[in-house]
Please model this.
Amino acid sequence: MSLLARLLGRGDLHSLAAPYALDALEPAERVRFERHLKNCERCAAEVRALSEDAVRLAWSTAAPPPAAMRDRVLAAVRATPQEAGPMAREHTPQLPPHVWGTQPPPGRSRAPRERRPFFVPFATATAAAALVVASLFAVQANRTQDKLDAERAQAREIAHVLAAPDARATTRKDPQGRSIGAVASASEGQAIVTLSGYDALPSGRVHQLWLMRPGAQPRSLGLFGGGDTPLVATDLSSSATSLAVTVEPDGGSPQPTSQPIVQLALKSVGFGE
Amino acid sequence: MEADELLVLVAGGDQKAFEELYGLVSGPVFGLVRRVVRDPAQSEEVAQEVLLELWRSAARFDPGRGSALSWILTLAHRRAVDRVRSARAAVDREQREARRAHHPAFDQVTEEVEAGLEREWVRRCLDRLTTLQRQSVTLAYYDGYTYREVAERLSLPLGTVKTRMRDGLTQLRKCLGGVA
Model:
């Protein structure tokens, strides 16, 4: 670092280039430095060079991954929508056609014109899948990094459920047009659940999701985050018969304190054995 | 095909191109993640997430800013470091105290790096760094410590660690320069 840079007070931020290239900054510093990078061409060039150096350290660690990982990743890829790039802002993310139930999954589609609905997990479930997908991608603008991270984590869980070989979808709509939808996998014991068309609750109240099993107390599966945000429910036992939603005080309740506003049977998605 | 071309195809939704890209990068990605995360099950999980993220975010790759492989390994490293730090956050404080009290050997990398030409070169070049340069670089890159943590572990001022990291990386560049 030159004396001039030091005198001008740029030294401090600038000296973070090497720790940044090594991913050795704390999150707040990382953000601050990345902001600085946008306005400092010299730093950007330096970071690029130092990052290339750091990557040299990566090459020496290469190791063959477990064979099963390939199948899992490729299955997830088939079920996971892609993000729009910076060049394609109007791009509408879509799941592959087989998820919509309009085509057999890729790899089985040697004869694309031949319809084989009995292979298709989502054949009867277009509406439910549409619900889940629409709510997932409704919001594209104004996302903070935290939100992006949270979305990424959620997309990962959703991809996981969608990739399960026994993933099925189901939905239920009431006469007022309000609906609950779920994509569930009995083998994974997971479901993605969405509510749609329900009025926003007064402050201090939340929608809570419950798992109903014969001869057992309802078990909380979590709170809906508001809007159309899907809830990822895990650890569903295969004996579960339905999902139920109640309105509860903020923070949720250990047991339901009111009648369910809606219930969704799980038999059609492979539960209740 | 090179990773750069493949990544562009992947951004366009080409699953065959992704399979080919997987063949090229899954080894480096998995190896790097395992080096940082250590735990085999967690490493597999993080590597899978990274590879799936390549598919989801391929459109973000900007060829004007570096090679696809650098972008991919940088992403993998970032995710591995995030994982190891969050896992470490809870238990580390006391362990760090304990380790510091015992003055353990920091230079594990040199012994752990296995055979192989690239490995051998990296090992040799790491060996040519000063001890402090080497420790600063490897504690950060291979073990996922922040430069503050590195300074604490090595009982050095922050400024010294930042300088050692920079010097270490530039020395590595010079040493590895001739090797593809």
